[in-house]
Design a protein that fits this description.
By secondary structure, this protein is of the alpha+beta class. Helix content is 52%, strand content 16%. A hairpin with a 5-residue loop joins strand 14 and strand 15. Helix 10 packs antiparallel against helix 22, helix 12 packs across helix 13 and helix 22 runs parallel beside helix 24. The N terminus is likely disordered. This is Cation-translocating P-type ATPase. It is found in: Cell membrane.
Length: 805
């Protein structure tokens, strides 16, 4: 009757194409091959694309059709008609930059898409009575999807079979308590199984499924929550506001007020507008992120959200789950200790039967299954799946001689009352870093809420966990980088502390039992700040602990691989899942370590620090140029003089003092932890730097206007001003490049040598319209630049003291 009710429910949801699961021998067999083909032909497939990155068209569109590209494109077309080709070089530079951005992002897309296929969840469906793993996109309407602990519900459906099936719907409803599902209950895509197993019929697939409707609103390749990107967007918005009125004033000044050659006036006007645009800043940020994705991809690290690279650079607390992170997934049974005179042969039979009772055993139970094969004499009447909240599992058996018994297997300190004499023996084992499970017999039924109350201890199962060989080195890395590691585990606190101690984690000797943690967030945060190892932590407590740390201003990363970690992974600033972890953990994590190696995390942190630290550096270079360009334009408008530079001059300066150096600086190693307030950190240097550059350059220009007369005076004035601006800009670069390494010194010197080459080679002088006339004014320009460099040093040191980051 139950199964017939499910058929009718499915028909109500889809009256045109009812989806009855075939039934044979009391067990749903799922669709037949012919029925699957029929549904595929009707288009009733789960055709929502798994998007790990933007499409090629979106990448090209995002890089080409930008506000600043449009402005520069119009100016470039104007220059092609009114000035020599060398004054149009800035347009070709933009084309090259855009091409580089597209190529790098396409490379990142290829890397992401390849890794996403490796890490893609493979749900199990039952067809023709046989279970098989298929791609999520191959599920059709009416498919019978099997579920086990950690499995994510990928489409909407209706429960057909249950075996203690408990589902967490918190990611959809916000309710943290698992929901016990019964046949006929609704299954919502986006939820996940925390205990038990079962099967459900797919009633909504593709874009009709609840989770798919949410997923269509966002792509994994997103930069929405990036402080770096939002900061750059804010800067660009203010630059636009400044640029528009300044450009209008400059146009009027050069074209209307000055009665000069029209084409030359246009050229100088464009020369004043183009450098106001920090066009390379957005490009360089995209390239830095894209190259970061490629580098991490080579280490089998799937970045599901690009801001995660930035977020990990800001992390100062890493919360680690012990099992699967510090230890390898597998375990070995090292000892069986019967208690109270129990017969060891009988205990082995019980353990074998318990192993057989769970179709999807966890690592502990799998070790027991390997050690104690099942006896076919026993039959499981009822089972209670393991739950992280309960800390134990159970089963009721009909033994071979007709006797019935009910058993529990789980945490000794949960199943035994405080003060039980066995606990001292268990503590001694835990202190060695061993994991201990208690086998207990209970007179109560499994559905009794107090099933563990009268349990009688029968045996201890001692398990040895395999430490990850690289875990110790990784923990030392975090300590050296001033990132605090917190081990948060559901296992016994003493055992967790012993494992952490073996790996050399500072504070491992002071282990905290989470059952003693205060519930008040502020008090919990105090305990968390002063301790490093926590045992017997429930899934909800993991979530609360992350929130408590965040309340103290910490940026928290959480690693995990089991369903008990999902809530904490979701709430942490950065969630990191192992590739072998459950579907649910991989779905909510921003970063998936496909090689299951905890040792990959330092590479991710280092990549994030490289990107953020270097973009902060080069952003200062770009914005100093924007500030001095706007100020020079305003000075020209106010003094009613001709604009200082042709576009070719500023193309040369931008290339040598910003473009080429910024590219190398953006990709250099950088281990400094990222700091907040990106906009403030950049502008506190860019504003004084731009003001000093503009003032010294304009001073040289006005001095030159009074010094030079006659033919060639205009070119001589521009050349003197260009020399001052280049030298001041080079000093900005020299400051930004600190601390010096051999390659950074070579970079600065090579840019200076390139400028000297332009001044020394006649045809380059002609090409760039640069020729220093006489010796008095050029040396005066150098002297003014030296004063400017001194002012830069003094101003930036004052800023460091007055406005510390």
């Amino acid at each position: 009757m139950t199964q017939r009710a499910n058929i009718d429910a499915g028909a109500e949801l889809d009256p045109v194409h009812p989806v009855p699961p075939p039934v044979a021998s009391g067990r749903a067999t799922g669709l037949t091959t012919a029925e699957v083909a029929e549904r595929v032909a009707r288009g009733e497939v789960n055709d929502v694309p798994v998007r790990s990155s933007r499409s090629t068209a979106e990448i090209v569109r995002a890089n080409v059709f930008t506000r600043f590209n449009a402005i520069i494109g119009v100016l470039w077309l104007i220059m092609l008609f009114v000035a020599p080709l060398q004054d149009s070089l800035f347009g070709f530079v933009i084309i090259a930059n855009t091409g580089i951005g597209i190529i790098q992002e396409l490379r990142a897309k290829k890397t992401l898409d390849g890794l996403a296929v490796i890490g893609e969840a493979k749900p199990t469906v039952r067809r023709d009575g046989a279970a098989a793993e298929i791609s999520t996109s191959e599920i059709v309407l009416g498919d019978l999807v099997e579920l086990g602990p950690g499995d994510k519900v990928v489409v909407d459906g209706e429960v057909v079979e249950t075996d203690g099936l408990e589902v967490d719907e918190s990611l959809l409803t916000g309710e943290a308590d698992p929901v016990l599902k019964k046949p006929g209950d609704r299954m919502m895509s986006g939820s996940f199984v925390v205990a038990g197993g079962g099967a459900f019929t797919a009633t909504k697939v593709g874009r009709e499924a609840y989770a798919a409707q949410l997923a269509e609103e966002a792509s994994r390749f997103t930069l929405v929550h990036s402080e770096l990107r939002s900061g750059i967007s804010m800067i660009l918005k203010y630059v636009t506001w400044l640029m528009v009125p300044t450009s209008i004033g400059l146009v009027i000044s050069q074209l209307v007020v000055k009665d000069d050659n029209f084409k030359q006036s246009v050229a100088y006007t464009v020369g004043g507008i183009v450098p106001m645009i920090p066009e390379g800043l957005v490009l360089l940020t995209s390239v830095a992120f894209a190259i970061g994705v490629i580098r991490l991809g080579r280490k089998q690290c799937l970045v599901q959200e690009l801001p995660a690279i930035e977020g990990l650079a800001r992390v100062d607390v890493v919360c680690l789950d012990k099992t699967g992170t510090l230890t390898e997934g597998g375990m070995d049974v090292t000892e069986l200790r019967p208690l109270g005179g129990a017969d060891e042969a009988y205990v082995r039979k019980v353990l074998g039967a318990l192993g057989e009772s769970d179709p999807r055993p966890n690592a502990s139970l799998q070790a027991i299954i390997d050690a104690y094969p099942d006896s076919e004499e026993w039959r499981c009447r009822e089972s209670l799946p393991f739950s992280s909240a309960r800390k134990y599992s159970g089963a009721a058996f009909s033994e071979g001689d007709g006797e019935n018994s009910t058993w529990l297997l789980g945490a000794p300190d949960v199943l035994l009352p405080p003060g039980d004499p066995s606990l001292a023996e268990i503590d001694a084992l835990n202190e060695q870093g061993l994991r201990v499970l208690l086998l207990a017999r209970t007179p109560r039924e499994l559905d009794d809420p107090r099933v563990a109350a009268d349990a009688r201890a029968t045996a201890l199962v001692v398990l040895e966990q395999r430490l990850r060989p690289d875990a110790g080195d990784t923990l030392r890395y975090f300590e050296e980088q001033n990132v605090h590691a917190k081990v948060i585990s559901g296992d016994n606190a003493v055992s967790v502390g012993a494992v952490a101690g073996k790996l050399g984690l500072p504070g491992a000797e002071n282990t905290v039992d989470a059952r003693q943690l205060p519930t008040d967030r502020a008090e919990m945060a105090t305990v968390l700040d002063s301790n490093a190892v926590f045992g017997r932590v429930t899934p909800q407590q993991k979530r609360d602990m992350v929130a408590a740390l965040q309340s103290r201003g910490h940026t928290v990363a959480m690693t995990g691989d089991g369903v008990n970690d999902v809530l904490a992974l979701k709430d942490a600033d950065i969630g990191v899942s192992m590739g072998s972890g459950s579907e649910a953990t991989r779905a909510v994590a921003q970063i998936v370590l496909l090689n299951n190696s905890f040792a990959t995390l330092p590479s991710v942190v280092a990549e994030g620090r490289r990107v953020i630290g270097n973009i902060t550096r080069v952003a200062t270079l770009f914005l100093v140029k924007t500030v001095y360009s706007v100020l020079l334009a305003l000075l020209v408008v106010c003094t009613q003089v001709e604009y200082l530079f042709l576009p070719r001059h500023l193309t040369l300066l931008s290339t040598l003092t910003i473009g080429i150096p910024a590219f190398f600086l953006a990709l250099a190693p950088n281990t400094e932890r990222a700091k907040p307030h990106f906009v403030r950190r950049v502008m506190r240097y860019a504003v004084p730097g731009g003001v000093i550059a503009a003032a010294t350059t304009f001073a040289t220009y006005m001095l030159a206007r009074h010094y030079y007369v006659g033919d060639g005076a205009r070119e001589a004035e521009t050349s003197a001003a260009t020399l001052t601006l280049f030298l001041v800009s080079m000093w900005v670069l020299a400051i930004i490049a600190r601390p010096y390494t051999w390659w950074r010194i070579c970079l600065v010197l090579s840019m200076a040598a390139a400028f000297l080459l332009v001044l020394a080679v006649p045809w380059l002088q002609t090409f760039f319209a640069l020729k220093l006339v006489g010796t008095t004014l050029p040396w005066a320009a150098v002297g003014i630049a030296v004063v400017g460099a001194g002012l830069l040093e003094a101003a930036w040191r004052w800023v460091d003291r007055r406005f510390p980051a």
